[in-house]
Design brief:
The complex is a heterodimer of chains A (151) and B (628).
Chain A (H helix, E strand, L loop, with lengths): L1 E6 L9 H11 L10 E4 L5 E4 L8 H5 L5 E4 L2 E4 L9 H5 L6 E3 L2 E3 L9 H5 L5 E6 L1 H15 L4
Antiparallel strand pairs in A: 1-8, 2-3, 4-5, 6-7
Chain B lengths: L6 E6 L4 E6 L2 H7 L2 H12 L13 E4 L14 E6 L6 E6 L4 H6 L4 E5 L6 E6 L2 E6 L8 H12 L4 E4 L2 H4 L7 E3 L3 E3 L4 H7 L2 E7 L9 H17 L3 H7 L5 H7 L20 H8 E5 L9 E6 L2 E4 L3 H6 L9 H14 L3 H16 L5 H4 L9 H12 L5 H4 L2 H9 L9 E2 L2 E2 L9 H9 L19 H7 L17 H18 L15 H12 L5 H21 L11 H4 L15 H12 L10 H6 L3 H9 L5
Parallel strand pairs in B: 1-6, 7-12
Antiparallel strand pairs in B: 1-2, 3-4, 3-6, 4-5, 7-8, 9-10, 9-12, 10-11, 13-14, 14-15, 16-17
Helix pairs in contact in B: 1-2, 2-20, 2-22, 7-21, 12-15, 18-20, 20-22, 20-24, 21-22
The chains are: A alpha+beta (151), B alpha+beta (628).
């Protein structure tokens, strides 16, 4: 079981409140570009929240040449000191949930048991759950499918 | 600065230059942003002899201090220019996702002057702006334009574009953002077309910082509780403005047959429920809005935004059409071609009534028979208008000018105020709306005053805001009493909220959850500029008064604050407001009184202008002999 933020894209209304709550909490400003969660548009018209679901395979960790990405209690965390901003993690992630912003890799590290993104979502399109491997794999699979595999 | 980015992007298309300049802090404090900033700049940069479609007109895209934050409904865009439709202050507000990206790209507003020789578009990214060739975009509709620009600049680029109607200077052409959220009114799309500016595309990785994050967070949590707990949120979230069709039809406020009456016998067929529930594939929000009142509909292979209440009237009841799919398609077609559905629908409805009355003939229409309810004809007229083909060239002038071109008494059936077509509120059913239409600065409009308190009788809000002594009349939609007092306060609040820029229907004017205290506090926690309730109210009044002063410069007086006789002299023939008229004069007296304006003339006394810190404006009006 790993604590992770799991999106339910069909409920997403494309309001970006999650990105604003995230960036405001972690970066001290409202900026979707700096958030650990992104929102794309699905072909069906609903929003598509892209966030790391802490997948059990974590190809980002394997791709990191400096060991800056480490798994701690199932959650992939970034050691900013060792990150060289090469972007290998971004390419390795099937949904682009790790991004290089301001010279360091950033991703959702599940900041709390009640993350601001989940709290602010008006439709329950994001939930934070202590999820088994299968649930996180399934969530990743759905996001991969909806993004066409490219993020 | 907090809240603000502190920069305005100035674009001169004649010289081909775009540069950022510092935002004057005094301008920010005195006019807030959005609407206020637009009205001050419009006043300063244009004049009586400014041709709305000439290079000397300005086109302003303004965000505000709250734009880009997580405050509910703060994703809105304010646009302004001198209106080619009214020749007065033109302003238009849209939802969507464009406005916050003005801030993230590094600016509080974009001011465009001049005129390009060739079609261009503006690309703004992280504090830089480029004027780029748009030869390949000219001639495309707004959906195609958006697709090309997103393909070129990336999925996350936000676009505001004109369609063919704007290129062809249709007087009620609109600016369309994100394919379906539209700054539609007053013909600002034609101003954009006259400048040969096809689109503005934005991308920014910047952010907005607030001065007191903790104070903001506290306010936000309270706001979320209020919004989620409001009994109005559920249906509004589900249907959006289309929810209004059935209740407005019951009270006789749903314009039917060119505003002849306010109840449509086939309203059930085009209800919000039929349209939204019948075709919805997804719920949708404007940026940073927990009301998420929009819906994405699907028809055939196409998906797009739902038609708003206004559009359902324009392509439905007001021309006697009861086909939801037709309304959905015409909404999309108007958005693609880039036209205000209110003005377009109002102009077509006028033509149909005049044809029925024999005042318009096939000779005028190029052989077309203008019959009520003829869907194929309407679709043809929409296209002919956008391309100014045949009779469409007359319709493209808007209903006032079109009726002057035709003459022969057709003016009587032209439903407009100051040249702007009347939206979908029959003032005979809700008196405050009659007053709002008559006095709104941009011409017939319900969203300049947003007098929604007597719509379904918000007695509790009226009691809290104004006091027991105004009940029951103020809450009674048929009573003209106290509507001037309510309209004044609602107009001030709307002006201030539109300056932040926040959506008026995200808990401010509807439903009435937040008020002046909240606004002053919100401005303070966002900007760090300590503003009291009384200063906020005075600022709002300043904005409304400079907007009025701009009109007064152009010759507007009490006589201009009028309504077509259909509303003031013809009692509603049937429906929920049968027998009612709009008692306009009585409401005007009360409104001018509440505003501190001269009751006989509608002019602003010098003392009022001085009180609001508008000495320069008072001097201008004195020179022109337009003080009372």
């Amino acid at each position: 079981m790993v604590l992770s933020v799991i999106p339910e894209p069909s409920r997403c209304v494309f309001c970006f409140e999650c990105t604003l709550a995230c960036s405001s909490s972690l970066e001290g400003e409202f900026s979707p570009a700096k958030a650990r969660i992104r929102v794309l548009e699905s072909r069906e018209g609903h929003g598509l929240p892209i966030v790391c679901v802490q997948c059990p395979e974590h190809p980002c960790v394997d791709a990191c040449p400096t060991g800056a990405l480490q798994v701690e209690v199932g959650i992939v965390k970034v050691d900013e000191g060792s990150c060289i901003a090469c972007g290998a993690c971004t390419s390795a992630c099937p949904i682009g949930a790790v991004r290089v912003i301001g010279g360091r890799a950033v991703k959702c590290q599940v900041c709390s048991e009640e993350p601001p993104c989940v709290k602010i979502c008006p439709t329950g399109a994001l939930k934070v759950v202590d999820a088994p491997d299968e649930e996180r794999e399934k969530a990743l699979g759905l996001l991969v499918e909806l993004t066409g595999g490219g993020g | 600065m907090y809240g603000y980015t502190g920069k305005i992007l100035w674009v001169d298309l004649t010289r081909g230059k775009a540069e950022g300049k510092d935002l004057n802090p005094g301008l920010a404090r005195n006019y807030l942003g959005g609407m206020g900033l637009c009205m001050r700049l419009l006043y300063d940069l244009t004049d009586v002899d400014t041709d709305p479609l000439g290079p000397e007109n300005v086109l302003i895209f303004a965000a505000g201090p709250v734009t880009g934050t997580s405050w509910p409904g703060s994703g809105r865009l304010q646009v302004a220019a001198k209106s080619p439709l009214t020749g007065l202050a033109g302003y238009s507000n849209s939802g969507g996702h464009f406005s916050p990206h003005i801030k993230y790209a590094g600016f509080d507003a974009i001011v465009v002057v001049g005129r390009s020789e060739k079609p261009v578009y503006l690309f703004v990214e992280d504090g830089r702006a480029e004027i780029r060739d748009a030869s390949d975009l000219w001639g495309l509709d707004t959906w195609e334009t958006e697709d090309v620009l997103r393909e070129r600049h990336g999925e996350d680029v936000r676009v505001a574009a004109i369609g063919q109607a704007g290129e062809n200077l249709v007087k009620f052409a609109a600016i369309v953002t994100g394919k379906g959220r539209v700054a539609a009114r007053a013909g600002i799309g034609a101003v954009m077309g006259s400048k040969k500016l096809k689109a503005v595309a934005l991308r920014g990785e910047g952010g907005v910082k607030v001065a007191d994050p903790r104070g903001f967070e506290e306010m936000l949590e309270e706001a979320m509780r209020k919004i989620d707990g409001s009994p109005f949120s559920e249906t509004y979230r589900d249907l959006g403005t289309p929810l209004l069709v059935l209740p407005m039809n019951v009270i006789g406020r749903f314009p039917t047959k060119n505003h002849y009456m306010g109840s449509f016998e086939r309203a059930e067929e085009i209800s919000g429920e039929k349209i939204v529930w019948g075709y919805r594939v997804a719920k949708r929000a404007c940026f940073s809005c927990r009301f998420h009142c929009k819906n994405i509909l699907k028809l055939g292979d196409t998906i797009g935004d739902h038609p708003e209440y206004e559009t359902i009237c324009s392509f439905g009841s007001n021309i006697l059409i009861d086909d939801p799919e037709f309304i959905i398609r015409m909404n999309w077609l108007s958005n693609r071609l880039g036209m205000d559905t209110i003005s377009l629908g109002g102009t077509i409805a006028w033509a149909m009534e005049c044809y029925e009355r024999g005042l318009l003939t096939r000779e005028d229409t190029g052989g077309l028979e203008l019959k009520w309810g003829d869907r194929d004809l309407v679709e043809r007229l929409v296209r002919m208008t956008a391309f100014r083909e045949g009779f469409g060239d007359v319709l493209a002038e808007g209903v006032r000018r079109a009726s002057q071109i035709i003459g022969r008494g057709t003016e009587r059936y032209a439903m407009h105020v100051k040249g702007l077509e009347i939206p979908a509120q029959d003032g005979r059913a809700q008196k405050s709306m009659g007053l709002a239409h008559a006095t709104a600065a941009r011409g017939a409009d319900h969203l300049t005053h947003s007098t929604f308190l007597d719509e379904v009788g918000f007695e509790e809000a009226i009691r809290e805001r104004y006091g027991e002594q105004y009940l029951p009349e103020m809450a009674d939609r048929f009573s003209p009493k106290y509507k001037g007092i309510m309209a004044k306060d609602c107009e001030d609040l709307t002006a201030a909220v539109s300056s932040m820029v926040i959506c008026v229907t995200a808990g401010w004017l509807f439903p009435p959850l937040f008020y002046w205290e909240d606004l002053a506090r919100l401005y303070t926690v966002v900007t760090g500029i300590e503003v009291s309730v009384s200063e906020m109210k005075r600022t709002a009044e300043r904005i409304v008064n400079i907007r009025r002063a701009y009109l007064i410069k152009h010759g507007v007086t009490r006589a201009s604050d009028s309504l077509p006789e259909r509303f003031t002299k013809e009692p509603a023939p049937a429906g929920g407001c049968k027998g009612q008229i709009v008692e306009l004069d009585q409401m005007l007296d009360e409104y001018y009184e509440a505003r501190g304006w001269n009751v006989e003339t509608g002019l602003i006394p010098r003392g009022k202008l001085i009180e609001l810190g508008l000495e320069d404006v008072a001097d201008d009006l004195a020179r022109l002999g337009r003080l009372p």
